[in-house]
Amino acid sequence: MRKNTKPAVLAAATAALALGLTACGSASDPSSSAASGGAADESKPLVVAASPSPHADVLNFVKDKLAAKEGLKLEVKEFTDYVLPNTATEQGQVGANYFQHKPYLDDFNKKNGTHIVPVVNVHLEPLGLYSKKVKAITDLKPGHTVAVPNDTTNEGRALQLLAANNLITLKEGVGTSAKLSDITDKKGLEFKELEAATVPRALGDVDAAVINGNYALEAKLSPAKDALVLEKSEGNPYANFLAVKAGNEKDPRVEKLAKLLNSDEVRTFIEEKYQGSVTPAFGTPAS
Fold first, then answer.
1. Which of 16, 85, 150, 272 is deepest in the core (most CB within 10 A)?
2. What DSSP string describes the chain?
3. Which segment of the chain is annotated as a signal peptide (predicted)?
């Protein structure tokens, strides 16, 4: 089943999230933010929702090594899905998030009426095709099953990766919004759509799987070494960024964090820790 992030589902998810975040309500109280028309309270921690790896790893490096020098109090909340970080940011349960790229955010805002905006690019996680059953893409034969993420932008991204490596043929011009129905030639392959976070766990049950970089790292895979094929970094539009609800971009805590996330220290941390599996992608996000 194709995953669509509907408002009703989000409402339920947000309600559930509220129960889990009541303890940090004071740290991310929307009444103290720029979005509510008042100045942000810099004495309170900036709570940032993040995927565990590499996002939370990068944020915790900033928290432990850099934040104090800038007078920034930082709290990192880890999430293992691609929905709750944005709903929590929209509702003011966290002050910012760091887990997504622009095509995903644009699609999310359009479908759910949210108002999340990017602040600063930080890194790129190349999407990869992995397998426990074959050693090369030429070993994938008719009848083999390939798992792909089922959210709109990441599925399109996955299909573009497969098409770029001649495993499938897509309709011309479908771009990152490609879906299974846009495949004009499956070359005998079968496809299984799964929530992005669950794809690594299914790797042993399929012949190959397209896995997001952060989930590959969490599954102890090395994208630079283990992927059969990997996205090219050059010209890649999928840089992951720090994001906030519109109106909070000038929160002094957000500005301090944005500066630190694009620092030489963070660049060195990413390059040394991830050895090419995650690469720095600093700068202003594309509009």
1. 85
2. ------HHHHHHHHHHHHHHHGGGTTTT-GGGSGGGTS---TTSPEEEEE-IIIIIHHHHHHHHHTGGGGT--EEEEE-SSSSHHHHHHHTTSSSEEEEEEHHHHHHHHHHHT--EEEEEEEEE---EEE-SS-SSGGG--TT-EEEEE-SHHHHHHHHHHHHHTTSSEE-TT-GGG--GGGEEE-TT-EEEEE-GGGTGGGGGGSSEEEE-HHHHHHTT--HHHH-SEE---TT-S--EEEEEETT-TT-HHHHHHHHHHTSHHHHHHHHHHHTTSSEEEEEPPP-
3. 1-27
What are the tokens at 228? 């059969």
Supply the DSSP string of 64-114, one letter for each residue. HHTGGGGT--EEEEE-SSSSHHHHHHHTTSSSEEEEEEHHHHHHHHHHHT-
Alpha-carbon distance 277 to 124, whole Å?
A: 9
The torsion angles phi and psi of 169, rounded to 5 degrees, stand at: -125, 135
The owner of tokens 């349960």 is 93
Nearest alpha-carbon partner for 163 in 151, 150, 149, 180: 180
Residue given tokens 């432990």 in the structure block: 64
Q: Among all chains, which residue has been given the structure tokens 């929307």?
A: 30
Residues 6+ apart with CB under 8 A from 241: 98, 100, 101, 102, 118, 119, 120, 121, 122, 285
> Is residue 85 within 8 Å of residue 47, measured between CB atoms?
no
For residues 45 and 74, the answer to whether their CB atoms sit within 8 Å is yes
Percent of the chain whose predicted confidence (pLDDT) is above 90: 71
Q: Which residues pair with 47 in a beta bridge?
A: 75
- Contact at 8 Å (CB) between 276 and 123? no
**pLDDT at res. 235:** 66
